[in-house]
Structure formats: structure tokens, C-alpha cells
Design goal:
By secondary structure, this protein is mostly helical. 50% of the residues lie in helices and 5% in strands. It is built from 9 helices and 3 strands. It has helices spanning 3-31, 41-52, 66-78, 89-95, 107-121, 126-140, 149-153, 160-164, 173-183, and strands at 194-196, 211-215, 218-221. The chain has a 3-stranded antiparallel sheet with strand order 1-3-2, covered by helices on one side. Strand 2 (211-215) and strand 3 (218-221) form a beta hairpin. Helix 5 (107-121) crosses helix 6 and helix 6 (126-140) packs across helix 9 (173-183). Mean pLDDT is 83; it is low at 16-31.
């Protein structure tokens, strides 16, 4: 191989490596940035901080909407930050919010929870799908249930979709997003650990549970 060709190959290899590094850095930066459309517990923290300090008057609901964008821009302008309405590392630091890598969910968690959501809430409003996922996670955190997601989902008699075969059906695309939102801390159920469809429920006991929220066909209960 001629020297010119060797130099060309080296140059192409270096260029390829630089491009890959840039893509990975961009993905990492985007993963650490909260913006319009983001949801979850970190968004709730952002809203609560902004509300406490007088920048935000909307609902603290964990949904990064236009009011949250406007409040973030207001905070950024006031504190000498780039007013882009996004909460990246600098804005999060200014707000005193730390995002731990430990809060990131594994793909296995997402897949398992998405399968349960799809089987139990396919066809329900999106908020209702997230709420079903939140019920699973609320059970994981409750001393009355197994302390792992798989333990909760596979607990005998817990979910009818495992006995009627729905659990093994193809997973709806929306269920993956709902699973991620639930794992990120969004809980439209209001802290529920049970839910049921009053049109199909056969257990008289479930009707005795205090109702916390109603979304679509499901009642979410304490």
C-alpha cells in the first residue's frame, strides 16, 4: 500500500472515530436534558423548585409543558443562563437538582413493564396506561407486595393477563413509552396499589377499596 493511501485510510479512520464520539456525546447530553415533552420525577422536582421560588404558577404534575418551558426561561434569564427553556446540567445545577445514574431503568425493566401495561391496558387512554405501570411500581415499594417488579407481576393471581394469555400477545408501541414514564416517576394513579374495571370485575372485595382516581375504564384504588 502506498504512503498516500495509508494516510488516506488513517485520515478516514480518525474522521470516523471523531464522528462516533460526537454522536455519543450528543446522545449523552440529550439524555441529561429535560425539555418540552419530558415527564417524570425530575420534571416534578423542576416544577416544584420553580414554584417555590416564584417562577412557576402551573400544576406540579411531572409533565414538561409550555408553562414549564416559560418558567424555566424566566429562571434562566434571571440567573444569567442561556434562556432556551431546557433544563440541562447547568440549569439543573442552578436549581440544586442532582440526577443520579442509579435512577435509570434497565431495558429489561422497561420491556417487562411494557408487556404488562399492554396486556392490561391496551386501548385505554395513554394516562391510564402509565397509571397501570405506576400501580406495579407502587406495589414494589409497598411492604405488602414482593419487592421486585418481576415478583409483583408474576405474583399468583395478581394480574388476569397472565392467566388468560394476554401477557404474551404483541406489545403495543405506546406501552413502551408508558413504561418509561412510569419508571421515571409519573404516577397518574394517585399512589394506587390496585385497579379494576367495574364492568368486568368479579371480586366483591375490590369494590371495598377506596377509589383514588378514575381513568378510562379503570378505577385506581388504595
Amino acid at each position: 500500500m502506498s504512503n498516500a493511501r495509508k494516510k488516506l485510510c488513517i485520515a478516514l479512520a480518525v474522521l470516523f472515530a471523531v464522528n462516533i464520539t460526537a454522536i455519543l456525546l450528543a446522545q449523552e447530553a440529550d439524555a441529561a436534558t429535560y425539555k418540552q415533552g419530558s415527564t417524570g420525577s425530575v420534571v416534578t422536582q423542576i416544577q416544584q423548585k420553580l414554584r417555590n421560588w416564584g417562577y412557576y404558577t402551573g400544576n406540579v404534575d411531572g409533565v414538561y409543558g409550555s408553562k414549564t418551558v416559560a418558567a424555566v426561561k424566566y429562571f434562566q434569564r434571571t440567573n444569567g443562563l442561556t434562556a432556551d427553556g431546557k433544563c440541562g446540567p447547568k440549569t439543573l445545577a442552578a436549581l440544586g437538582i442532582q440526577v443520579s445514574d442509579a435512577s435509570q431503568s434497565t431495558s429489561g425493566d422497561v420491556d417487562l413493564l411494557a408487556r404488562l401495561i399492554s396486556a392490561e391496558a391496551r386501548g385505554e387512554p395513554y394516562t391510564g396506561q402509565v397509571a397501570v405501570g405506576a400501580v406495579v411500581l407502587n406495589r414494589v415499594n409497598s411492604p405488602a407486595f414482593p419487592n421486585t417488579m418481576s415478583g409483583v407481576i408474576y405474583q399468583s393471581g395478581a394480574f388476569t393477563c397472565l392467566s388468560d394469555g394476554q401477557f404474551w400477545q404483541p406489545v403495543a408501541d405506546s406501552a413502551y413509552k408508558a413504561a418509561r414514564d412510569a419508571l421515571n416517576g409519573w404516577d397518574p394513579s394517585g399512589g394506587a396499589i390496585y385497579y379494576f374495571n367495574p364492568n368486568t370485575a368479579t371480586s366483591s372485595w375490590i369494590w371495598s377499596r377506596p377509589v383514588l382516581n378514575v381513568i378510562g375504564k379503570h378505577r385506581f384504588c388504595a
